[in-house]
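For this section, I looked closely at a protein sequence along with its fold in C-alpha cell form, which I now present.
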Amino acid sequence: TILLHDFFPQARLAANEISEKKAALLKENLTKYGVEAAVSVGCGLEYPSSQLFDLVVVDAPCSNSGCLYKCPEAR
C-alpha cells in the first residue's frame, strides 16, 4: 500500500487484510509514513464496498517457502 502510494501519490487507496493483527500493523505503518488509506478487515471475497476501482493489486498467499531459511529442519 505504501509502495502504491509512491507510484500513485494522488490516488485514493483502500486496503483489505484478512488478519486484524496485520491490519493494525498496516495502519501503524501508514501513519508512520504519512500515507492515507482506508483499511478494512475481512475476507476479500466479501469486500464491504460497492465502489469501483481503477486498479486492484492482490498479495496472494504464498507457499511459505520464504520461511525455509528460518527452519533448517524444514529444508
Observations:
- The longest helix spans residues 20-32.
- The chain has a mean pLDDT of 87.
